[in-house]
Design goal:
195 residues; alpha+beta; five-stranded antiparallel beta sheet
Length: 195
């Protein structure tokens, strides 16, 4: 016989459905920011860990991280999904960095970009999300919304942005994939966060 769970009447049923963020504009908050090297090109880049700061999707990536499947043999997985990357070298990188830092300045009264990435922690910005196809662990093509561009929080709140066209996978992308994953669930605490 199964032991009765305390407060059973207050437990919410979980049918395995997850909340899915949609394309649109959101107010976001920087949780951590650091300089790293791109694994593919070796170029310096700024890696911004962020989450949704307001509205129906507040703390979206935190909840996704806490509820993600985990491999008992690799406690480092899964990775934080609320990330935005800005290359810090190469052709025309300056404009994208300027757009990000200007959006941060316009969204955080009294803040001036000081070339210290750690000063970005806790700052808010506006994010435009677009739908993108990806290949799931079981080989199935799925769609999720990803941060595509940044704006000021005012532009997002005022609706002064356009939602971009969905980024679709090509048949070659799908054909070359052979991903698989065996996962089990493990509890997550705040100490497990990757930043």
């Amino acid at each position: 016989m199964i032991n009765k769970i305390e407060n059973w009447d207050k437990v919410e049923a979980n049918y395995g459905e997850s909340k899915r963020i949609t394309a649109g504009g959101y107010i976001c908050k920087v949780l951590a920011c650091k300089q790293e090297q791109s694994k593919s090109s070796g170029k310096n880049m700024l890696v911004i860990n962020f989450d949704i700061a307001e509205g129906d999707f507040k703390d979206f990536y935190l909840e996704k991280y806490k509820n993600a499947p985990r491999d008992q043999n690799n406690p480092q997985e899964p990775k934080w999904q609320g990330k935005y990357y800005i290359l810090l070298e190469g052709e025309n990188f300056e404009g994208r960095l300027k757009a990000f830092t200007t959006s941060i300045e316009e969204s955080n009264e009294g803040y001036t970009w000081n070339w210290n990435e750690e000063s970005l922690k806790g700052k808010v910005f506006g994010g435009i999300f677009r739908e993108e196809d990806y290949i799931a662990y079981n080989g199935e093509v799925r769609t999720s919304a990803k941060l595509w561009q940044v704006r000021s929080t005012k532009k997002i709140r005022d609706g002064e942005f356009e939602i971009p066209k969905k980024k679709e996978l090509t048949q070659d992308d799908i054909a070359s994939n052979n991903a698989s994953l065996d996962a089990t669930f493990m509890p997550v605490t705040d100490d497990d966060l990757p930043f």
